[in-house]
């Protein structure tokens, strides 16, 4: 609700005061430098840390929940494109990869990338957890030419390499 209210404030400031604003909705951003031990840690750094430590990652639920994971370079690209675009003031755009991947598939990718056959621990689902998210990025594509360039697998390889270099 607070994010939606913020988007409304941005739109209002554009219409009332002429202050050019663009709201970008980032979906499940991942990349190097995320702290897997943070209380706000995203699932990808937590899973990578578990694999590198040789311990099973924890999945809340059956692992079939899915997310539109977005590599940080895509986010940076979209942000710069939106900042430079004409005719987008007051608008809101989704920034994502535009593809959905389940947590089970994410684990399978990490198994393949690390060469480690680690099985996750499944716990009870989190109350209120959204089962699936998938962003429609067509508005950003049409308005300012956003095209996600780094897919999830390539992003995972890059993040994994970054964590391995720092171990």
Describe the structure.
- The chain has 167 residues and is an alpha/beta fold.
- It contains six helices and eight strands.
- 44% of the residues lie in helices and 14% in strands.
- It is elongated, with a radius of gyration of 18 Å.
- Helix 2 packs parallel to helix 4, helix 2 crosses helix 6 and helix 4 packs across helix 6.
What percent of residues adopt helix (DSSP H or I)? 40-55%
Tally of alpha and pi helices: 6
Helix-strand string: HEEHEEEHEEHEHH
Strand order of the largest sheet: 1-6
Summing up helix and strand content along with how strands pair, one would put the structural category as alpha/beta
Reported for the largest beta sheet, the result is: 2 strands, parallel
List key phrases describing it.
single chain; 167 residues; alpha/beta; two-stranded parallel ribbon; 6 helices
Layout of SSEs?
Layout: H1 2-17, E1 22-26, E2 29-30, H2 43-53, E3 58-60, E4 66-67, E5 70-71, H3 72-84, E6 91-95, E7 101-102, H4 103-114, E8 121-123, H5 138-144, H6 152-165
Parallel strand pairs: 1-6, 2-5, 3-8
Antiparallel strand pairs: 4-7
């Amino acid at each position: 609700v607070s994010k939606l209210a913020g988007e409304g404030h941005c739109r209002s400031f554009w219409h009332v005061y002429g202050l050019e604003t663009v709201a970008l909705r980032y979906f499940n951003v991942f990349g190097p430098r995320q702290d897997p031990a943070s209380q706000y840690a995203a699932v990808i750094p937590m899973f990578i840390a578990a694999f590198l430590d040789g311990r099973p990652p924890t999945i809340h639920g059956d692992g079939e929940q899915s997310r539109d994971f977005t590599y940080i370079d895509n986010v940076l690209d979209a942000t710069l494109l939106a900042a430079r675009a004409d005719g987008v003031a007051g608008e809101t755009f989704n920034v994502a990869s535009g593809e959905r991947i389940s947590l089970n598939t994410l684990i399978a990718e990490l198994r393949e990338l690390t060469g480690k056959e680690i099985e996750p621990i499944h716990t009870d689902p989190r109350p209120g957890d959204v089962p699936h998210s998938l962003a429609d990025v067509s508005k950003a594509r049409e308005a300012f030419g956003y095209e996600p360039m780094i897919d999830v697998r390539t992003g995972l390889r890059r993040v994994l390499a970054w964590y391995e270099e720092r171990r």
